Amino acid sequence: MVSQSGILERIIEPQRGGFSPEHARYVLSLDFSPEEHGVYASLSDKAQAGALSDQERADLDDFLTVNALLTILQAKARISLNRHGPAA
Question: What pTM, to 2 d.p., does this model score?
């Protein structure tokens, strides 16, 4: 089975680094807002309880997709910074 995150990893290649230090720091600063974290947590809790509506399931899928992309990009950013050294 092909997963979205697997496809993204093959395209983005986080293990290769390649971001400038400035770009890497910017990517590492990206995050959901506090309100979005709350919605994400609430949807996750409802999913574990088996109580999601169809719309909530679609919303949670969107959060999961964005989180996977963000995780992969931030991994690439960390590797990029490590390759530039601590003074970067």
Answer: 0.86
